[in-house]
Amino acid sequence: MEVRSEGIQVRCDDKLQAPVIPRTRLRVWFIRVCSSIVLWTCLVQLVTVTELRHSHFISGITSRIYHKTQSPLQAENGVAQHPPPFLPARNYTSNGFLRVSCNGGLNQMRAAICDMVTVARLLNLTLVVPELDKKSFWADPSNFEDIFDVRHFIHSLRDEVRIVKRVPKRFSRENGFSTLEMPPISWSNEKYYLEQILPLFAKHKVVHFNKTDARLANNGLPLDLQKLRCRVNYQALKFTPQIENLGQKLIRILSEKGPFVALHLRYEMDMLAFSGCTHGCTNEEAEELKRMRYEFPSWREKEIVSEERRSQGLCPLTPEEAALILQALGFDRETQVYLAAGEIYGGERRLAQLRAKFPRIVKKETLLARDELQQFQNHSSQMAALDFMVSVASNTFIPSYDGNMAKLVEGHRRYSGFEKSILLDRKKLVGLLDMQQNGTLRWNEFADAVRQVHEKRMGQPTYRRVNVDKPKEEDYFYANPYECFCEGTKCDNMLGPRNSSQVP
C-alpha cells in the first residue's frame, strides 16, 4: 500500500519503514554543505598566507579601518584630514631578535624605546615589543600594551624595522638556543653597535638588553638615525585610547577656562630621597628620606649634604620656592596652574603657600571624577602619561627639576613649534631666593633678576651643548632634537638669530 502526501512517497509494507526523501533534495543539501566548507577553508588559508607573507593588501585594509577609528588631523585650512595609511613593510633579512627590558619611570623608558628601535634598524634586527620596568620604586605592573598602542607602534614603523610581540618558539632553550643577557655600554655610537654588538647575534640569535637607559649617544650619529629616534617618539609611541581620551578630556576642561601653566613640581618622596634634598623638611622627614635612600642599592650616593646639593642647583624647588618664582616671572593670582605631579611630600601642608598665591591650582584628581581615574590607580606610569599629555599641550610649561619628564616634554614642545617652556636655572635661583628671603634683595630687584636670568631659557631654537669627553654632561637629545625640525642638514638659519623670548 502507498500513501501520497505533499509529494512525499511513503511505502507501507508488512514492516514499518522510514519515509524516503527524494534524492534531488539530498543532493542540494549536500552541495550546499560542501560548498560552505570549501569556501571557509579557502578563506582561512588566504588569511593565513597573507599574514605570513605580510600582504600589503590585507594590511592596507586593516590600516584604513584603524585610521577611521582615530581622531582626524586638523589641516591648516580647518578641514579635517585622516592620517595617511601605513607605509609598506621593509623587506630585509633579519640578523636576529633583540629583546629589551626598559628601566626607570615612564619617560626614561620612552626614550629608551626610541633608542632601541633605532639600534634594531641599524643592525637589521627584529625587535621584540619592549618589556617595561616593574621593579623600580614605583612598582608599576603595566605592560607595554597597557600604556602604548602596540598595534600602532608595530605597523607605523614596519617600513623601518620588523617588530614582533614575542620571540618565536623555535629559538627557545628547548631547541638549543640560549639568550645572551647584557647591558650595552652607555652613550655609545653606531660604531660600537656595528662592531661589538652585531657579531653577538651570529652566535646567539637572541640578545636581551637588560638595561636600556641612555645607551645611545646624544650627538655624532648619522642624520637618518637621529630622525628615526624622533619618528618613534613623536609618531609611533601613541598612548592607548583610554589614556588618550582621558588626557584630551583634561586638556579640554583646562582650555575652556582659559590659558594654563603646567607646573611639573617634582617635590615627591622618591625624588627627595634619591637626591638627598631636604630643604624645608622637618628633622623627622629628613630622617625618613635618608632611610628610604639607603633601602635602594641603585641610589648610589648615601651621605649627602642637602644644602651643599641645593647650592649647586641639584635640588628640585620646594612648593614655597616655586610660588615665589612664578610670581617673579609675572604670573598673577588669576593664573590657572595645573599641577603635573604625583603626591607632594608633606601633602597639602606644603602646598599651602603655593595655593595662597595661586588659588586656581588644579590637578587631575580634582578635575576628573574618582571613577574616571579608578582604572589608572596604582599604575604610576599611566598616571604620568596623563600629566605628560597636559604638559605638552599647556600654554606654558615650567619644570621645577630637569628630570626625564621635564626633558621629554621640553623636546615635544620644541618639536611642536617651540612652545614656551621656562627652564629654570636653579643654581642662580637659589642665591636669589635666599637673598630675597633674608631681606637683602628687595622684591622688585628679585623679580627683575629672575626674569633676566630666564630671558634665553624659554625653549627657543638653539643647538645642543656637546661635551665629547663627558657625554653624560652634554645636552640631552630628547630635550632638543634639533635635527628633526631642520630642513636638510643645516640648522643655522633657524637656530641662529632667535634666542630670546618675553616672559611670561
Supply database-style keywords.
globular; 20 helices; four-stranded parallel β-sheet; 504 residues; five-stranded parallel β-sheet; disordered N terminus; alpha/beta
Notes on the protein architecture:
- By secondary structure, the protein is an alpha/beta fold.
- 44% of the residues lie in helices and 9% in strands.
- The protein has helices spanning 23-52, 56-68, 106-122, 144-147, 150-156, 190-204, 223-236, 241-256, 269-275, 283-295, 306-311, 319-328, 348-357, 364-367, 370-373, 380-393, 404-415, 426-437, 443-453, 492-495, and strands at residues 2-5, 8-11, 73-74, 80-81, 97-100, 126-128, 162-164, 180-182, 206-209, 260-264, 336-339, 361-362, 396-399.
- The strands form four sheets. A five-stranded parallel beta sheet has the order 7-6-5-9-8, with helices on one face. It has a four-stranded parallel beta sheet with strand order 12-11-10-13. Strands 1-2 form a two-stranded antiparallel sheet.
- Helix 9 packs across helix 10 and helix 12 (319-328) packs parallel to helix 13.
- The radius of gyration is 30 Å and the shape is globular.
- Mean pLDDT is 85; it is low at 1-21, 46-80 and 497-503.
